Amino acid sequence: MLKIAFSPIYKYELPEKHRFPMIKYELIPEQLLYEGTVSEDQFFHPDPLTEEEILWTHDAAYWEKLKTQTLSKKEIRAIGFPMSEKLIHRGRHIANGTVQCALFSRQHGVAMNVAGGTHHSFTHKGEGFCVFNDIAIASNYLLHHGIAQKILVVDLDVHQGNGTAQIFQHDDRVFTFSMHGEKNYPHRKVPSNLDIGLPDKTEDGPYLKALRETLPRLIDDVQPDQVFYLSGVDVIYSDKLGRLSLSLQGCRERDEFVLKTCKANNLPVAISMGGGYSERLAHIVEAHANTFRVAEEVFF
Question: Where is the Histone deacetylase domain (predicted)?
Fold first, then answer.
């Protein structure tokens, strides 16, 4: 059974200017339930991360500032959200959702978080709407407990995963792979183990060709026993922040290739949703919903 992390706290009400497209976190489950792709019993509600689990990834000084709401104005601007205790609490639930998805993926092959993909969060700071780095936290959880020995992060959000790259830059147990828009945010990129920067307006054909030529080779070279997949849909043509030009079908084919490749190699894969900022909310929900549909088709 496909297990999906989702909690009502994911729907935390931000100020109006940040409201869109965050409403997607409540619409994606509604759409999947309405069309019958999933059922209520597939959703689980993650508890918040413990402080100990946070500190396996993030610096104590950064965590203290979050906990006591003492980030500087500059640090808050870099994150992009107004700070509150509720926002931090929400982030702890979402990050633990990815931890639990990793554990479920080792039972069922795949598991998915309706949120997550907060790859611009560093060891010591947050930026780009990212407070905690959920994939890094989940990776360190598996490594700490000896559940995984070698992890591959497949980051296909349109923005380069600078925070994840920084966190694991000296840890050869985690291989970070990011394929993204070369000229897009962040403008100062922290090198991943492998970065593929794509030109503006890249369409389905060149995008999928690059992915198909890279991922199987990476799996052969890295020999991971766990995959984390950041399936951002800000790669599609209608995305306000994306600058690439994938169709909805091309984005779905991307997901299908990643998941079929993981299954063919008997690799458990935990999926975080990442970004999506199209003008039409329907495009965001449809693109994200496709990832869940593909997971059901490929694994179940």
Answer: 20-290
